[in-house]
Amino acid sequence: MQRAVFAHIALHDWTHVFSPLRIRQCCLKHRVQLSSRAYSVIPPPRDEAEKALLHSMLRVDHAGEYGANRIYAGQMAVLGRSQIGPLIQEMWDQEKKHLAKFNEILAENRVRPTLLLPLWNVAGFLLGAGTALLGKEGAMACTVAVEESISEHYNSQIRALMEEDPDRYVELLKLIKEFRDDEMEHHDTGLEHDAESLPGYKLLKSAIQLGCTAAIFVSQRL
Amino acid sequence: MAALLRGLRVGRALRGFGSVVVPKTSSPQCNGLRRGFHCAALRLQEDKDKSIPVPPSSAASSTTTYHEHYRAPPSKNNTATYMHEAPAPEAAASEAAAKEAPQPNTSYADQSGEQGEEYETEEQLQAHILNAALDFVQLHGWTLEAISAGAETLGLSAASSGMFQNGAGDLVLHFIAQCNAQLTEQMAEQHNQVQLGQAEPKKTAEFLRDAVETRLRMLMPYIDNWPQAMSILLLPHNIPDSLKHLSTLVDDIWYYAGDRSTDLNWYTKRAALTGIYNTTELVMIQDSSEDFQDTWNFLENRIQDIVNMAGAAKQVASTGEAVAQGLMGAAVTLKNLTGINQRR
């Protein structure tokens, strides 16, 4: 499992390094359309409907990663110097990589980011810091709840894309599957580190998941 | 007897089937219409080999995907006859009306249009009429009369302006879309030049100023009637479309200026540029200086304001960070001095 994850991350980094170089080569050699490169993550949309769908998916994913980033930042602000600090830092670094990837995709495809980003900025930080104040178990419980919500969201996106046309969206599906696997790993890590031993765990978890569902709903539209 | 009745029933069914396959009744005009379309389709096949005056796709590069709504649909040669087999009722009525006016000339393909181009779709026909109508805006203003005059120069009846449900709004929106498309092409071309290393990249403020100036200069031939156009765009049923055109314009300008932000800056930059564009447009319509020099000075000053504000915002942020760090340092020092900071 670990090796597979490492392979995933290694592949991910390789494409990260490789793509900027190819961009410049491509544009210098021939005037191709920016989004028709074979390795671009989303295919050039066929019509307005597909464009709206893809853009809304990317927008909400970007908002999700941004929020997760801020949650970990909040947790680090409180628990950064405790024993659990390095673990949270490691999970935060993975989220930073996800966010960077989505920033790149949004910029490349001219997707509008969600207007509510400042709200997710503050809300995420407060959620992370607030649950971290409940101690290490609180932080882990928050992680478990959020990562479960995000994994479920990615799964429904994967289902939607597979129903539409798996061959057309093969790159995007690969990316979302990879990110979903990372989030599931965070979820499992949270469970391993005594998330469930928090008093009121079930209540906190359902409250956080309700908030995440609402956030996803709103970010898709706004 | 029964066999005879069955035969009659089959015959009636077949005739019914036949009339379903051929939607229009077989009147001589409509036969001529179909033949005309067939000729048009044949002529289009020939034209496809020659160079058609369509905007060059090479300049499009990164824009084709994003600006398809500005271009006429790519020549649907194969589907020309198919498309005209079942046109919208109003188009059929107006096109039939247009055909009836010059009575002997029922072949649609022989209409003398601009450069002898054939009209394949209703959208392209409307685009051609509106382009022709722009020449009459100085005379008639942004009105249906201009559209009718334009239609007449194409050999169509003046009643063709009835095709435009939105009347003058269609003309103004078409003009705006055309100007925006032209600007986007120019910016894409410049972008290509920079990518190929044949041109130096401009600084953001300079790029914005040039883009807005280029776009506003396209209004100069129509500047006397432009207040009328602006008031048409403010009509409630035109507001969604005009806002869409404006937002796409501003997004394109920022994209080619190099903005790739994915946070709240995306919104603040576009809001700022929208403000600059609208106010400069308003200044332009009441400007009486030589070559609108006052307008360009106004534009330069507004862009400088934005640049200054951005610089000031950055300074405030960095000062704030420095102050916060200073306070933290002071707090840690105090805790050390009073002995609170000891690790137990």
From TrEMBL, chain A:
Ranges that cross the membrane: none
Membrane topology: Peripheral membrane protein
Residues holding Fe cation 1: E65, E95, H98, E183
EC number(s) stated in the UniProt entry for this protein: 1.14.99.60
Pfam family, one: COQ7
Cofactor binding annotation: Binds 2 iron ions per subunit.
Cofactor: Fe cation
GO biological process: determination of adult lifespan; regulation of gene expression; regulation of reactive oxygen species metabolic process; ubiquinone biosynthetic process
UniProt: Fe cation 2 binding residues: E95, E147, E183, H186
Catalytic activity: a 5-methoxy-2-methyl-3-(all-trans-polyprenyl)benzene-1,4-diol + AH2 + O2 = a 3-demethylubiquinol + A + H2O
Cellular component, GO annotation: extrinsic component of mitochondrial inner membrane; nucleus
Pathway(s) the chain acts in: Cofactor biosynthesis; ubiquinone biosynthesis
The protein's enzyme class: oxidoreductase
Subcellular location as annotated: Mitochondrion inner membrane
GO molecular function: 3-demethoxyubiquinol 3-hydroxylase activity; metal ion binding; oxidoreductase activity, acting on paired donors, with incorporation or reduction of molecular oxygen, NAD(P)H as one donor, and incorporation of one atom of oxygen
Keywords: Iron, Membrane, Metal-binding, Mitochondrion, Mitochondrion inner membrane, Monooxygenase, Oxidoreductase, Ubiquinone biosynthesis
UniProt family annotation: Belongs to the COQ7 family.
Xref: HAMAP family: COQ7
Subunit organization: Component of a multi-subunit COQ enzyme complex, composed of at least COQ3, COQ4, COQ5, COQ6, COQ7 and COQ9. Interacts with ADCK4 and COQ6. Interacts with COQ9.
Function: Catalyzes the hydroxylation of 2-polyprenyl-3-methyl-6-methoxy-1,4-benzoquinol (DMQH2) during ubiquinone biosynthesis. Has also a structural role in the COQ enzyme complex, stabilizing other COQ polypeptides. Involved in lifespan determination in a ubiquinone-independent manner.
Protein name: 5-demethoxyubiquinone hydroxylase, mitochondrial
Organism annotation: Salvelinus namaycush
Gene of this entry: LOC120036278
Automatic annotation (TrEMBL), chain B:
GO cellular component: mitochondrial inner membrane
Compositionally biased region (Low complexity): 85-104
Subunit and interaction comment: Homodimer. Heterodimer; two heterodimers of COQ7:COQ9 come together on the same side of the lipid pseudo-bilayer and form a curved tetramer with a hydrophobic surface suitable for membrane interaction. These two tetramers assemble into a soluble octamer with a pseudo-bilayer of lipids captured within. Interacts with COQ7; this interaction allows ubiquinone (CoQ) isoprene intermediates presentation to COQ7 and facilitates the COQ7-mediated hydroxylase step.
Cellular compartment(s): Mitochondrion
GO MF annotation: an example: lipid binding
Disordered: annotated span: 49-122
Residue ranges crossing the lipid bilayer per the database entry: none
Chain ranges of the Ubiquinone biosynthesis protein COQ9 HTH domain: 122-152
Pathway info: Cofactor biosynthesis; ubiquinone biosynthesis
Protein name: Ubiquinone biosynthesis protein
Record keywords: Lipid-binding, Mitochondrion, Transit peptide, Ubiquinone biosynthesis
Location (main, coarse): mitochondrion
GO BP terms in the entry: ubiquinone biosynthetic process
Xref: InterPro entries: COQ9_C (IPR013718), COQ9_HTH (IPR048674), Ubiq_biosynth_COQ9 (IPR012762)
Annotated function: Membrane-associated protein that warps the membrane surface to access and bind aromatic isoprenes with high specificity, including ubiquinone (CoQ) isoprene intermediates and presents them directly to Coq7, therefore facilitating the Coq7-mediated hydroxylase step. Participates in the biosynthesis of coenzyme Q, also named ubiquinone, an essential lipid-soluble electron transporter for aerobic cellular respiration.
Domain COQ9 C-terminal: 239-309
Source organism per UniProt: Salvelinus namaycush (Lake trout)
Entry similarity comment: Belongs to the COQ9 family.
